[in-house]
Amino acid sequence: MKRHTHNRNNSFLIASTFTGLLLITSTVTRAQDVGLNAWGMEFAPITEQGIDHMAFYPGMSLSFTYEVGPWALSPSLGLEWAADATYWGIMAMLYADHPINDNFGFDIILAAMHDQEGDNWTNAEMFLGAGSGLSWLMNDRAVLTPNVLLYYGLRTNTWALAPGVNLWVSLENE
Predict the structure, then answer these.
(1) CATH number for the domain that contains residue 109
(2) CB count in 10 Å sphere of residue 62
(3) Bridge partner residues of 8 (DSSP)
(4) Domains held by the chain: number
């Protein structure tokens, strides 16, 4: 069997390219609202023995929110870090929020999470996730969204459950 070698610079190049493309396309299309997200999520792999704690991840990201018909689409890019397990990485998410009434919305959430321990780029994992949440419009500048996502680890074939909460705050001057 041929051993696959991985160059650390390739991961950095891929992450940098992805970040640059997201930022370039977002600014060209002129976002309606720029926001800062602060979140926390419990990441719990699902095994034959049950669901186990792996790490608690706080994170921060920038997002650009657009209205598309009745939906508000909010792609974001940021960093996550699990101090209790020394994992960290890049998190890209897409929230699609549909209003239920003036104060609440139902969210469909897609996520891609690059995760590694320390500087171990060679064994970094890429998780893809999907789930839903309920957004509460606290005022015209802040939204709180409790949510639950199911993630799949592409390298390790790992399933994980991730309940969490996201606080979005507008950075726009009104």
Answers:
(1) 2.40.160.20
(2) 17
(3) none
(4) 1
pTM (predicted TM-score): 0.80
Token reading at 87: 């994992």
Is residue 2 one of the residues assigned to a domain?
no
In whole angstroms, give the CA distance from residue 118 to residue 87. Answer: 6
The two tokens of residue 65 are 């929110």
The model's pLDDT over 155-171, given as tens digits with 9 standing for 90+, comes to 999 999 999 999 999 99
Is 112 inside a domain boundary?
Answer: yes
Around Cβ 54, how many Cβ atoms within 10 Å?
Answer: 18
pLDDT digits (tens, 9 = 90+) for 10-27: 555 555 555 554 444 443
Q: Can you tell me whether residue 12 is helix, strand or coil?
A: helix
Phi, psi of 13 (to 5 degrees): -65, -45
Question: How is residue 4 annotated by DSSP?
Answer: P
Which residue, among 130, 155, 165, 170, has the nearest Cα to 56 in the 3D structure?
165
105 CB neighbour count, 10 Å cutoff: 22
Q: 132 is in which domain, residue-wise?
A: 8-170
Q: Give the contacts of 61 (CB within 8 A, at least 6 positions apart).
A: 36, 37, 39, 76, 77, 78, 79, 91, 93
